[in-house]
Design brief:
Length: 337
């Protein structure tokens, strides 16, 4: 009797321990710093990072996410990264304020032994003289726990230009044999801005179309700035402007307002292109108030970034670069959706 009781007691104890063990979930600490919260596109992106992490939680695995606003200030963001290190984050997801600071930041994180997923702002490779080159970034390639998740900005620029090439008049509204355009650029240090500016125009010249750049200004990805720059250009160059290329949709939304205010009509006497496929921009494409945009897949990119972060947390091997495709969004595409 005594023996049976002892066995029973031991069994109860064991069961108790087991259920205690399974009730205790493993919580991973994730530090995320975004270059600037007020950025329209990065707001969608960061919200999806949080939502997707939550969707991956189970009874056994939880993710405690600390999000920080880099406020477009590299010193501020460096402090945030240092805090992440002190707080013992298990993984860091970083949207750099300045890609030129990538080396310094990557070094600090790698030295602390924390895996790192860089997103959205691709660090630029450079040669011995410090000039940027079209190659993978050594600070990423040389680290098996560091990677970049993004989209190839050349593709988005090419799609913008292609949508103009595809128009019946190829963008030459006044029939003078050339396409006269203005360019509204994002942050010029950013490879997205550089490549979109270059490749949108290249798509036209590659198709044998002559181009004339009337104006090229920096709008820093910002809607208000985009409106202001487009309004100025419209009052300066008037009818001469046939195409307005904006490096992103936020600036294109601003440009759309300026175009309407100047009594111009997209699709009739001017064309307007953006990138990101923000909901408002897709609506304008549908309504014929924007010629086209390019889907910058924040869902695909954020999910890939999170998936890779989870692989790193699990100690799995990763690749150094992950690419997500852009998609051309013209009226035909929107109408077919
Ligand atoms: C681009 C995006 C812009 C802006 C920028 C920030 O990929 O198209 O709207 O968010 O990233 O780096």
């Amino acid at each position: 009797m005594k023996k049976t009781l002892a066995i029973l007691l031991a069994a109860i104890l064991m069961l108790g321990c087991m259920s205690f063990a399974s009730a205790e979930a493993k919580t991973y600490k994730v530090g995320v710093s975004i270059y600037q919260y007020t950025d329209n596109f990065m707001t969608l992106y960061r919200n999806e990072i949080e939502a997707y992490f939550k969707s991956l939680e189970t009874d056994d695995v939880k993710y405690e996410i600390t999000m920080a606003d880099g406020k477009n200030d590299m010193a501020e963001q460096t402090n945030q990264v240092r805090n992440f290190i002190t707080q013992g984050m298990d993984v860091i997801i970083l949207n750099l304020v300045q890609t030129s600071s990538a080396d310094a930041v990557i070094d600090e994180i790698v030295d602390a032994g924390i895996p790192l997923v860089l997103i959205n702002r691709e660090p630029l490779a450079y040669d011995a003289d410090g000039n940027t080159i079209d190659e993978a970034y050594e600070g990423i390639l040389n680290n098996d726990k560091v990677c970049y998740v993004g989209a190839d900005a050349r593709q988005s620029g090419t799609f913008q230009g292609q949508m103009v090439v595809d128009l019946e008049n190829h963008g030459d509204i006044n029939g003078d044999g050339k396409v006269s355009y203005i360019m509204i650029e994002g942050d010029p240090e950013n490879i997205d801005a550089q490549y979109r500016t270059e490749f949108s125009v290249k798509a036209l010249t590659d198709a044998g179309i002559e181009v004339e750049c009337l104006d090229d200004q920096v709008g820093n990805w910002d809607q208000t700035k985009g409106q202001e720059l487009c309004a100025n250009a419209l009052s300066k160059y008037g009818e001469k402007i046939e195409v307005v290329f904006c490096n992103n949709d936020a600036m294109a939304l601003g440009a759309a307002t300026a175009i309407t205010a100047a009594d111009r009509k997209v699709g009739e006497d001017i064309y307007l292109l953006g990138v990101d496929a923000l909901e408002e921009a897709v609506q304008l494409v549908k309504d014929g108030e924007m010629t086209g945009t390019v889907l910058n897949d924040h869902i695909g990119q954020s999910h890939k970034a999170v998936d890779v972060a989870v692989m790193l947390l699990n100690g799995e091997a990763i690749e150094n670069y992950y690419w997500v495709d852009y998609v051309m969004v013209n009226k035909a595409y929107v109408d077919a959706q």
